[in-house]
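Figure 2 data, in text form.
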Amino acid sequence: MNKEFVEASIAERHDYARQIFALAVTWFTFFVTVNYAAMGWLAPNAYKIKHALLLIALLFWAQNILGITVCSLMLRHFPNTNRRIAELQKQLMELQSLSPTPSSETAMPLLFYSQCLKLMIITLVTIMLACGILPFLPSSP
């Protein structure tokens, strides 16, 4: 393996992780906004249609389960990416005839990404709970 290839691989993996995280934050912001807006718009009118609110709640649950699944997949993906970057850094140091450091530390903010994804999951679970409670609230006359 040559030095330029390893350097390019490290840079590409960092760039890839940043792009995925930025897209995840954008998706999450849009997803949560639409979730709350739709819930607020549909809930007052759903009582007029029998079982409509339950159907809406089930649809929200399905959507949020998919969102939680995506966040969980990313929680597993980022450590794997970080591990691969650390391996490439070690190879690069060996190619440069430097003694590799035993640390697996990289420039990727793994802890930050993980904490943000966990907070996203908590938010989606909260939305699911709100959707699960909504059909059982007493309707206004």
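Caption note: The chain has a mean pLDDT of 83.
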